[in-house]
Amino acid sequence: MPSTSIDIVRASVFSTFAWLKNNKWLLFSMLIWPYLMTFLILALGIIYGSLEMYKERLGISNPVLYILASSGIVMSSLIIVDTVATSALYHRWLGTLPYLLLTPTKTYKVLLLEPIPSAILSSTVSMLAVLPGAVLFEGLLGAGKLFLILLIVYLGMLPLIGLSVVVASLTLVLREESNIVAFLTPLILLVSGVFYPIEILPTVLRDLSSIFPTLYVVRAAKLTATYTIPEVRALLTLISALVILTFIYNGVAGFAIGESEKLIKKSGVV
Questions:
Q1: How far apart are CA 191 and CA 207, in angstroms?
Q2: Domain span at 49
Q3: Using CA atoms, how far apart are residues 102 and 112, in angstroms rounded to an integer?
């Protein structure tokens, strides 16, 4: 009998909390990482320039809040990509991949639902870690802005999971797991425009950045750090882009993982 979606999510929740229970330093690093990145970026900026120049170059009014929020966004995004894209690798290492492919439950369903609890938890923890800084600089308004960013992060998580499932399907076929993920992670950092204007990148990379969900989430963070009340039309444009990418990536992911599963079963090599 195939496992239901609730069964998969419940098992994943238990696994996520059990893993964090035995890796407390990871939880601590998730809380402290945005502040370390903010300190590093601001320190380098002060040494080689000024905060005013940084604000002018990026077009933001509160660089500290922007860097804090963007650092949290990047960390949660990378955790999502790593969790989903390497899930096939972990199953292969554990020897459970053949059983996963042969179970009545669709492989796509497992790879799509399994990382959701971890993705939600990492996104929430990353944003909550920034909450003290947001309240310190902008009070309750800063907390409200952070909550808005968190909601957009949740939305951006959907196409990012689809993209990661596509990568996971490639790992099943090409058997080059580490190389693919190792290439994708720095690429996301490069084209998301987190710590520098996206306009300074070459035209090819600027065009390529439009297919990554993190770009739109970071732009939403930039809007909230620029205006006291973010412009609704601009936010809706970013949300629309994320919704479109969600349908595209998850549609492609369903086809890709299905085809890769057929190829593996046909070749008999896992």
A1: 9
A2: 5-267
A3: 17
